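Key result, reporting period 2: structure in, sequence out.
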């Protein structure tokens, strides 16, 4: 089982050829009539599909606009996230703890409203969850579900940025629940590890021993790829019900953070954790903005008051409220 959060951009895309069918041939009037009827039916069918597609696109808008990518300052490594709440001056993004690791020394959040510097991080101690704060308006929000989804019957949608692509939405169902083992990294070998014949080769080739953690998880049959970590998992009403955090191979089903962990982190645990400020932050402004973006560390609350941003100052000081 592998974590799918940190993904580097690919320089080349795979090419898919389009198969072209041979033209129909009709030898007599009846065949021509049949062909015309088939063509007419096809046109009507396509028109119906087109209308349905437009409606589905409109319905899916909320889980498109609230999906963001989280990267390092170079924008070449990262994962996905979901905008929980935003205002004119501050926005909050939910993602995985291991995705936040790429922003520990400075990171960026990329959304439809623009690109903003990561101003603060809160890591959960109970699961692979993290809350990101940015000073800017991501112009999106997410409704948290009131209850978890019913296994094997409830439809699931995952909205994220696999391979740091534009927003991708995949569909499936909430499935079984299981405790899975995930390798989260390596720890430095100790002297006794080097002398242990069962660990010596691992220390020699990898320079450390793998760190494996157990996670309570819900399997969702919507597919994900590396870079999908942190993607929001939604029910049919587009309410947040989980967060993708692990999978197998380059393309597979999603292991997701169960609903109760997500709800507890947002409403309870995160309130008791202070935001950690990344080092080497960049001063990034949104591409589309209606007012000045106040960057943490560059402008203090007192300074913003002198600039007549009293309302903004209060917003910067308050924490997330649902």
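The corresponding designed sequence is given below.
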């Amino acid at each position: 089982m592998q974590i799918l959060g940190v993904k580097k951009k690919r320089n080349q895309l795979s090419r898919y050829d389009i198969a072209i069918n041979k033209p129909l041939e009709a030898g007599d009037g009846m065949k021509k009539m049949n062909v015309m009827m088939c063509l007419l039916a096809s046109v009507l069918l396509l028109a119906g599909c087109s209308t349905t597609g437009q409606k589905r696109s409109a319905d899916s808008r909320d889980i498109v606009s609230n999906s963001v990518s989280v990267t390092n300052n170079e924008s070449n490594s990262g994962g996905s996230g979901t905008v929980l709440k935003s205002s004119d001056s501050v926005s909050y993004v939910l993602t995985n703890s291991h995705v936040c690791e790429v922003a520990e020394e400075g990171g960026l959040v990329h959304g439809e409203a623009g690109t903003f510097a990561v101003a603060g991080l809160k890591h959960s101690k109970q699961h692979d969850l993290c809350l990101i704060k940015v000073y800017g308006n991501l112009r999106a929000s997410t409704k948290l579900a009131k209850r978890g989804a019913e296994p094997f019957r409830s439809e699931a949608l995952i909205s994220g940025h696999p391979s740091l692509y534009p927003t991708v939405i995949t569909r499936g169902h909430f499935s079984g629940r299981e405790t899975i083992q995930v390798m989260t990294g390596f720890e430095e070998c100790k002297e006794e590890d080097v002398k242990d014949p069962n660990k010596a080769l691992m220390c020699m080739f990898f320079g450390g021993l793998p760190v494996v953690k157990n996670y309570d998880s819900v399997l969702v049959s919507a597919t994900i790829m590396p870079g999908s970590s942190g993607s929001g998992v939604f029910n049919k009403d587009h309410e947040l019900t989980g967060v993708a955090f692990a999978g197998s191979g380059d393309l597979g089903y999603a292991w997701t953070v169960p609903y109760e962990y997500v709800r507890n982190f947002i409403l309870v645990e995160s309130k008791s954790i202070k935001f950690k400020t990344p080092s080497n932050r960049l001063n990034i402004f949104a591409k589309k903005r209606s007012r000045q973006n106040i960057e943490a560390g560059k402008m203090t609350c007192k300074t913003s008051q002198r600039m007549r941003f009293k309302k903004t100052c209060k917003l910067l000081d308050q924490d997330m409220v649902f």
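Confidence is low (pLDDT under 50) at residues 7-60, 283-322. Residues 63-142+270-317 form a domain with the Thrombin, subunit H fold (CATH 2.40.10.10). This case is discussed further under Risks and Mitigation.
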